[in-house]
């Protein structure tokens, strides 16, 4: 992959390379990972990198950090083609594509303001995944369908 | 067939067999609903929790419980209860489930009945949640069609008229009728047409349907004309509303060319969709339809509470 080589970012020793992020979603990935200006570890963000089969993609490299399953699940919702590369001692020790879960619990806020899940009831939001790419979620309480601007509905 | 559904939340949860079972049971109970009494719910307490007012629905459920020998507790608006002080629906359900054998719930939030069914150990019957589901309305509509039409549900041509966009009870009815393969006609102004997800659902299922904004186009072929109310506030321009409102009104004159056994339904209350003169014609079935709510609700209650006939 020549494009990978062309990236002016040096390989990381330990950490995670989040690749094939849908172009434009890199900042939302940072949000999901809780990366802010206070984050100490080295984070590289590449946006609109030319990509063979995607046209353009974003890439995020985070040093000294591996993602937990909930973070991976959430990334799948906003960018279903993302691949995760776990790097240890310069080696890719694990590489996998994010998988859209069958249901999404407690990660996304329902877009229907009158939904019971948008109240102070002690319950977690819950959606069925109706379609994976593009991701389409149906609220299991009010049946509202969320399909655009999912990132804005992340809890 | 055993009725396995403990809660009655959405029409979409039901199979055709389950709907048939409820309608069969309603038929058995209808004589009791008219003038009678059974002990099927003897010693049972049914809670009716109405967090928003709907006198008609509440009285219909209340009648159903009492005709079956049960008793009711509850409230009919949330203002005077602890809910007004900020108690959650969750807590209310957890408290009432220890008093009552079943809970009939009407709540302004969509999905409220679904949530209640997940936490309640006693059956929840959804009596309407916000703009959401109202399954016993759909069931009584189906019962009316089955009882009052001369042909089977699947052989009918049902025209639904009015606000097809926002009226979710209409969406549930369309879903239920689609299980029988009923031919559907939708009559609505452009602003209030049937939403695309329902149209796509019908297309996928190969259900025959016809869309128009002209009521006159469906009159001749219809076996059922299901009128609904169009709300003024759906129209940004009041003069647009007046145009539409006038064109979706059934008058006695219009009945000249209809099928002899065509029936007119309306979930009530009506505003001016049906001229009062129509009431005395053989086509008018809306008051009958309203009565059928009682045997249908009796059927639902007896089934979820496993009351043996
Ligand atoms: Zn919802």
UniProtKB/TrEMBL annotation, chain A:
Summary of the function given for this chain in its UniProt record: Involved in allosteric regulation of aspartate carbamoyltransferase.
Gene Ontology terms, MF aspect: metal ion binding
Cofactor(s) it depends on: Zn(2+)
Binding site for Zn(2+): 110, 115, 139, 142
Organism, scientific name: Methanooceanicella nereidis
Known partners and oligomeric status: Contains catalytic and regulatory chains.
Cofactor: how and how many bound: Binds 1 zinc ion per subunit.
Stated name of the protein: Aspartate carbamoyltransferase regulatory chain
InterPro entries reported in the protein's UniProt record: Asp_carbamoyltransf_reg_N (IPR020545), Asp_carbamoylTrfase_reg (IPR002801), Asp_carbamoyltrfase_reg_C (IPR020542), Asp_carbatrfase_reg_C_sf (IPR036792), Asp_carbatrfase_reg_N_sf (IPR036793)
Lineage: superkingdom: Archaea
Swiss-Prot/TrEMBL keywords: Metal-binding, Pyrimidine biosynthesis, Zinc
GO terms classed as biological process: 'de novo' pyrimidine nucleobase biosynthetic process; pyrimidine nucleotide biosynthetic process
